[in-house]
Specification:
By secondary structure, the chain is mainly alpha-helical. Helices cover 57% and strands 4% of the residues. It has 2 domains: 4-93, Tyrosine recombinase, N-terminal domain (DNA polymerase, domain 1), CATH 1.10.150.130; 120-284, Intergrase catalytic core (hpI Integrase, Chain A, Orthogonal Bundle). The protein has helices spanning 4-23, 27-46, 57-69, 74-93, 120-127, 135-150, 154-158, 188-206, 225-238, 247-260, 265-272, 277-280, 288-298, 300-303, and strands at residues 165-166, 171-175, 181-185. A 3-stranded antiparallel beta sheet has the order 1-2-3. β2 and β3 form a beta hairpin. α1 (4-23) packs antiparallel against α2 and α6 crosses α10. The radius of gyration is 22 Å and the shape is globular. The relative contact order is 0.10.
Length: 307
């Protein structure tokens, strides 16, 4: 029988792989996650816990108390709690636990770091990088256009199948977290690139092979999340974008640009597939200059309606 720590660790590794690919976290952040969760696994091992389904709220409270006894600062303990909360959310999403045992009394994460986004000029530069005359370039351009047009998660994008695309209505049907199905519209630019790829470049790429997946490699297998992450990083460097660009960066840019253009929060929430609108609210940040402009434009005093 495996030691409890060895039984728990593979799921921690899966979580770390997911955040590496989908979130594009910095190496220091990933190292901190890894250290925090290794300590958690050791603690649970001493409690003879060998299955994540056995973890309950009392175990988590005991773990936090253990961190306090070790003399960790409130800031460090809060970081551990955030890491644990994200791990449990991942395990629940993957149906490895029924529900998160995280106690409600534990401190919630502090102010969330605003997601990094690209400017419209950077987006245009990135979209222009793939060589659409080549099958792989046409595939990459179609993926970038569709990702920016829909804000899909990278896992939803790479596993997208042909029957999920509706060109008559210009939308895709995707199954997101918690197996929730949603329809996400896309515009004419994405339609043009996607239709061109599927009708011309994709058959040249597959060379007679049959695959239900839209975005494949030459062997007909779907492009992996890791593979797409490497692609977007390479194209961003070629475009001279001086930012850390990941698939999630385009998702963030999609949401931010919609809201800045006047879209309502509920609509963006639906398109992103967020279960809770509080998750979407992080995109409502605006810079001080824009706030000042809005204030001057619409406040009755500034408009001279009150004196």
């Amino acid at each position: 029988m495996l030691p409890a720590k060895d039984a728990l660790s593979p799921y921690i590794d899966s979580f770390l792989s997911m955040v590496t690919v989908e979130k594009g976290l910095a190496k220091n952040t990933l190292d901190a996650y890894s250290r925090d969760l290794a300590g958690l696994a050791e603690f649970l091992d001493k409690q003879k816990i060998a299955d994540w389904r056995e973890v309950d709220a009392n175990h988590i409270r005991a773990y936090v108390s253990h961190l306090r006894v070790r003399g960790l600062s409130a800031k460090s303990i809060a970081r551990h709690v955030v890491t644990l909360r994200r791990l449990l959310r991942f395990l629940q999403t993957e149906n490895l636990i029924v529900e998160s045992p995280m106690p409600q009394l534990l401190p919630a994460p502090g102010q969330r770091k605003l997601p990094q986004t690209l400017s419209a000029a950077d987006i245009q530069s990135l979209l222009n990088q793939p060589d659409a005359n080549q099958p792989l370039g046409a595939r990459d351009q179609a993926m970038f256009e569709l990702l920016y047009a829909t804000g899909l998660r990278v896992s939803e994008l790479v596993l997208l199948q042909t029957q999920q695309v509706n060109f008559q209505g210009n939308y895709v049907i995707v199954k997101g977290k918690g197996s929730k199905v949603r329809a996400v519209p896309f515009g004419n630019y994405a339609r043009e690139k996607l239709n061109s790829f599927m009708s011309d470049a994709r058959p040249r790429l597959l060379k007679g092979k049959v695959s239900p997946y839209i975005f494949t490699n030459r062997s007909g297998k779907p492009l992996s999340r890791q593979g797409f992450w490497k692609l977007i990083r390479r194209y961003a460097l070629t475009a001279g974008i001086d930012k850390r660009v990941t698939p999630h960066t385009l998702r963030h840019s999609f949401a931010t640009h919609l809201l800045e253009g006047g879209a309502d929060l509920r609509s963006v929430q639906t398109m992103l597939g967020h279960a809770d609108i509080s998750t979407t609210q992080i995109y409502t940040h605006v810079d001080g200059a824009r706030l000042k402009k809005v204030h001057q434009q619409f406040h009755p005093r500034e408009k001279g309606e009150l004196s």
